[in-house]
């Protein structure tokens, strides 16, 4: 089968598509023919060996996928060949086939395209977990989304609207701000401007943001926290800008505010019931059309490098997806 193979931790330009043997299927496992894989920020870090955990070499990157069950001896988890699934795994999704345990899978509802499913689960579950289970975002509250045109950002814009909040999208370019508006943001702010906090103050009529969804990090995070409303909640989602900010402790005191961590990787282990509930909520919205997840750009498998480069050069609108098989 064809697969993207990381033989040495390296930049995307040095990573190649190879012909490798199909993965062997073990007891309790099943084989999925991958139709599409989503490219996540973490995948880029893992390839370069810059993520907090290192995958042993060689490895096939890719943590999120959608496809069709191809082989399921003993029907683990009730899965049968021919069933459509979406999955999340530690690695291996950028390949024509993947072998997983049933816990990695979730049935894919009819009518949902593989490209949508491959870009849906991680970002939308992160957004819903953060906004609902962590921040208890209420209808009518003001939500500020940083990096709002990125993969998790645009999911937070849509989920914020779905939960009834007023969404203010912060992004660096006119195209990104237009994209956020197109997907439901009520207002936008250019957070590369030095006076962006004044604009935010005007947009919230002096109230500040009740909830801040922050996948960006760096100095912007501390600036954003300074604009939080009384009893506001700042969600620590990621550090796309690279630097991990440090918050002076007097700020939460003065603002009556809270800093809340969000880690999707720990959700199935620490709060499996919450994950189950949130996934059913998301799939119900997906099936009845209340939620139309954004697919950024779709690339052919041969062009996987371009998908990574687009994301890594801050050029992506939404999540990048690689189409693997029809
Ligand atoms: N906690 C969790 O469970 C969880 C789950 C998923 C992802 N994450 C993390 O969240 C972060 C964002 O992921 P994502 O998928 O949303 O990424 P993404 O699609 O690349 O979006 C990140 C956004 O950050 C902004 N940004 C600011 N400085 C940047 C820089 N130097 N390079 C790249 N982007 C920069 C960009 O918006 P502007 O150009 O508008 O500034 C960009 O749209 C990553 O650190 C990822 O690991 C965490």
UniProtKB/TrEMBL annotation:
GO terms for molecular function: oxidoreductase activity; zinc ion binding. It holds the Pfam family ADH_N. Residues 10-322 form the Enoyl reductase (ER) domain. This is Quinone oxidoreductase. The lineage of its organism: Bacteria, Pseudomonadati, Pseudomonadota, Alphaproteobacteria, Hyphomicrobiales.
